[in-house]
């Protein structure tokens, strides 16, 4: 089983859109796929229209009152399961802080899963104990980055954090997200980063079809399968498969 976290220190950069569409593509290709929604906002759960049948699922998983595999809910799509998030996910740091090996809890939970080919984590923004867990637990930490100055600073912050905390900085991979072709600044920052840093070649432009996922309450491919946006995510998935262990 390979694991991929959609992560950024910042919110609103395309983590959830990425997690949902990449999970959909993996499953459509026949990979047995689990998307674990770790964000109390529960946006991935919303797009896949799943709700937990348990109360306080997110907290109970961490305290082992609920087995991770039992928290997975089937979706309307073949090969695709989701662990929905609820508001109890906001207590994750407090719950973890009380534990021994508090930075390795997620890793040990993921090790209990059997039969999945890939697990994707839709992460909340921030950099705290839950994120330490995510960084330890996953093979690839995939960061969508909007090519703006502040967004790129957050990339530098994350890489420095990995280096300072003895984490494998090599597992951080980035792609540009919400790229606006009309903005010179976006072009300039992309040129600079492609020259100096490790960014995937595929990127996701700012496209209204992606925004419409919310209105349609669906993954992109269910209502715009032949769109440019869908092709961009397919290209991204194709490139990601090459870097997965
Ligand atoms: N490439 C894109 N083009 C246009 N809108 C996007 C794009 N990616 C995400 N969005 C929209 O921007 C908002 C934030 O995206 P989301 O994926 O939820 O970010 P995050 O999970 O990082 O907070 C959502 O309303 C989403 O539909
Ligand atoms: Mg999100």
Automatic annotation (TrEMBL):
Organism encoding this protein: Filimonas zeae
List each copy of the AAA domain by range: 3-162
Q: What is this protein called?
A: Cobyrinic acid a,c-diamide synthase
**Pfam families noted in UniProt:** AAA_31 (PF13614)
């Amino acid at each position: 089983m390979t694991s991929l976290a959609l992560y950024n220190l910042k919110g609103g950069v395309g983590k959830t859109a990425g997690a949902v569409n990449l999970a959909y593509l993996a499953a459509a290709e026949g990979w047995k796929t689990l998307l674990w929604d770790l964000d109390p906002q529960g946006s991935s759960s919303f797009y896949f229209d799943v709700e937990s049948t348990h109360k306080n699922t997110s907290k109970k998983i961490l305290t082992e009152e609920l087995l991770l595999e039992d928290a997975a809910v089937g979706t309307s799509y073949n090969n695709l399961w989701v662990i929905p998030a609820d508001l109890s996910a906001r207590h994750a740091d407090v719950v973890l802080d009380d534990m021994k090996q508090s930075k390795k809890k997620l890793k040990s939970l993921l090790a209990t899963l059997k039969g999945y080919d890939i697990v994707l984590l839709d992460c909340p923004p921030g950099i705290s104990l839950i994120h330490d867990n995510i960084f330890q637990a996953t093979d690839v930490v995939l960061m969508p980055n909007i090519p703006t100055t502040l967004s790129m600073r957050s990339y530098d912050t994350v890489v420095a954090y990995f280096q300072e905390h003895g984490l494998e900085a090599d597992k951080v991979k980035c792609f540009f997200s919400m790229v606006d072709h009309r903005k010179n600044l976006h072009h300039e920052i992309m040129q600079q980063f492609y020259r100096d840093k490790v960014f995937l070649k595929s990127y996701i432009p700012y496209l209204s079809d992606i925004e419409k996922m919310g209105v349609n309450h669906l993954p992109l491919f269910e209502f715009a399968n032949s769109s440019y946006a869908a092709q961009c995510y397919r290209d991204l998935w194709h490139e990601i498969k090459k870097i997965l262990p």
